[in-house]
Amino acid sequence: MTTNKQITQFFKNHTVACAFGLLICAVIIWFYRLNPLVTTAVLASAVRQSTPLVLGALCGLLGERSGVMNIGIEGQMLFAAFVGFMVNVGTGNLALAVTAGILAGGILGLLLAVMTVTLRIDQIIGGVVINILAVGLTGYFYKVGLSTGGKLGAMALKPLNEIPLIGAVLFNNPPITYLTILLVFVVQFVLFYTPWGLRTRAVGEHPAAADTLGVNVFLVRYVNLIWGGAISGLAGAFLTLEAVGSFERGMTNGRGFIALAVMIFGKWTPLGSWGAALLFGLTTAVQTQLQFGGHIKIPHQFIGMLPYLMTVIVLAGFVGGARAPAGLGKPYRKE
User: Which residues contact 126 (CB under 8 A, 6 or more apart)?
Assistant: First the structure.
């Protein structure tokens, strides 16, 4: 009975989002009937494009749900992408390279925790430090011409990959993409259905009240920032070890900041962030298809603006309507 009430309440709270999602699904089905191959390719690309965004959003919401603003996601992703790539160059072991990328992100998450929780540095400045540090280190140590032995390939989940449209889009992907989808549901469950998630949300809303009830505010923030950093490290590993197979300076290209917009659009929830990330990924996939398909005769720079224009629209239209955790951005001093 409780589950039914929760489902009903969810649809009441997300009526506009659900209606918008149904509209997009109807449009997709219509396009699929007109051109199945192109529609499948665009949707598969949208899932891949959304992967680093939803991972970055999960990183952000873990920190912000515990009261720490994280604008260093861009730097965490970039540094992890570089570390994963260099480990792959040196060892040729993709599993070890992915692990190194995750650890690199976790280390920067720990650094952010030290600055913002222990030293109580302004959280925005702490995030800026992470971004500048990552750009500086990766730019200084990277050498042009390095190459790896390959990247993570697609793993078809038979017989699910044979389902029309959905099979080719969701069940024929590389491992990090599958892991990302799994993480969305894991983080959703942990945040809203476990004691740790309750403590995290309590610390993010009112850390002093949580402290009086015996919750270790500093521990909760440290753990969430480290795990969030590790998840953003997985996003960085995705870029160099699954999506591209190489590293370029500044290759995150603003994805960390777009992930923040995705998090806001998703109202600080994993499932909402995943839906928002898919929307951004679809926008990116469509603009890529328009550029290479030659269907629209306008300068490609204008088409390339679509994902960033979507970011501006989302921030302008939804940042006022979404309620951030009440304790966000406020350093906590134990009395």
Answer: 72, 112, 115, 116
Instruction: Tell me if the bond preceding 159 is cis, omega within 30° of 0.
Output: yes
Instruction: List helix spans (H) across the chain.
Output: 2-13, 15-34, 36-65, 73-91, 94-113, 123-141, 166-170, 175-193, 195-205, 207-212, 217-238, 255-265, 270-293, 300-304, 306-318
Condensed to tens digits (0 to 9), the pLDDT of residues 44-102 reads 888 999 999 999 999 999 999 999 999 999 999 999 999 999 999 888 899 999 999 99
| Bridge partners, residue 156, by sequence | 172
CA angle, corner 274, sides to 258 and 261, nearest 5?
Answer: 25
CA distances (Å), 24 to each of 18, 28, 135, 190, 278, in order? 10, 6, 37, 29, 11
Q: Residue 244, exposed/middle/buried by CB under 10 A (0-12, 13-18, 19+)?
A: middle
Cα–chain center distance at 96:
22
Three-class SS state of 326: coil
Cα separation, 229 vs 110, in Å, equals 8
Are the CB atoms for 102 and 80 separated by under 8 Å? yes
Cα–Cα distances in Å, from 298 out to 293, 294, 295, 304? Answer: 12, 9, 9, 11
- The model's pTM is 0.88
Distance CA 99, CA 117 (A): 26
